[in-house]
Amino acid sequence: MTYSIGEFSKIVGLSDHTLRFYEKEGLIKVNRDENNVRVYSDENKLWIESLLHLKNTGMPLKDMKQFAMWGHVGDTTMEERLALLKNHRKKVVEELEKLHRSLEHLDNKITFYENELGDCFSKN
User: Fold this and answer.
1) What angle, 0 to 180 degrees and rounded to 10, lies between the N-to-C axes of helices 16-24 and 5-12?
2) Which stretches within 13-77 are classed as H helix?
């Protein structure tokens, strides 16, 4: 199935402006019709979903661009893409561990204040 930029932006939850930016930056390749109008496909949808997952995990734009460039080249860049993804995954795991430690600290503080406030109320 094919979509206009307006239809596609609603499907993927990105603005027309963002889709144009992604195309300009080489993150996505978009076909054009005989009138040079962008025509998006279901394949574009799957690719955008992958890019958004990378973005949501904090992958820098330059790495996303590199990943996309290698993806557009094809199977000869699979090793490079795998290495990039493994390196990024390592960073995501480190960030998750850091967030988990901070969350534990936050939970401990909440418990402390709840206990302190509980003690204050029971003394009155």
Assistant:
1) 100
2) 16-24, 42-56, 61-73
Q: Strand, coil or helix: what is 41? A: strand
Alpha carbon 88 to its chain's center: 12
- In angstroms, the CA 26 to CA 113 distance is 51
At residue 107, what are phi and psi to the nearest 5 degrees? -60, -40
The SS3 call for residue 32 is strand
In 10 A of CB 12, how many CB atoms?
20
Residue 32 CA to residue 106 CA, distance in Å, equals: 51
The position carrying tokens 């860049």 is 77
Contact 53, 10 (CB under 8 A): no
**Predicted confidence (pLDDT) per residue in 39-70, tens digit:** 999 999 999 999 999 999 999 999 999 999 99
Task: Identify whether the C-beta of residue 5 lies closer than 8 Å to the C-beta of residue 40.
Answer: yes
In order of their start, the domains of the chain are 2-123 (1.10.1660.10)
